[in-house]
Amino acid sequence: GRRQIGNIAAKLREIEAAVAKRQNSRGQLAGDLEVDEHGIRSFHVSTTNAAFEKYRTKKLMNKKLPYFLNYIRVVGLRQRGGGRLYLSFLPPKLLPPKSRPPPISEEELINSGILKRAKPGSCVVHTDGAQAYPSVIKRSFRKLRHQSVAHSRMEFVKPVRPVRLPSGWSASSSGTQAIDSTWKQLDKAIPAELHT
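Above: the chain's sequence. Below: its structure in token form.
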């Protein structure tokens, strides 16, 4: 119940704080970077839970549901090779039962500040096919180079033309394997009794 959720959140804050403490002093990341969002855990929220009232959408309020589903979601930026990582929690989003974690929205991506950790002109940002990434990068982060793969089309690695960066040439393939492996490690780090 509530204690499990509190324990999950506390463990994630502890992990995030440890990573942030090491990384914040190092500034922006350069080279080949991967950005992705991940639903770490989900939990049921009672339809009468006042703490989540502000997260209900009109669409959900009009339905008679036994409960809502909420995912604890993060967005991360990971440097290939060096493994340096930045994480940011995404806000709660209530969903109908049996829903999958939603893709990141443009507003969530901007508010996370994760793309500010990519050094303009010195990196290539690799993402999955979520629509928020190219839209936000084109509009607000024009100096970032962007490559993506479409997981919805079963595309996980894609050959791309390397580009010249101040530190050398970028990778010849796009994908999110490095940050996906981070998500697997993060999932394993959360104790089994906290799984929902």
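The beta strands are 29-46, 67-79, 85-89, 94-95, 118-127, 145-148, 157-159, 164-165, 168-169, 173-175.
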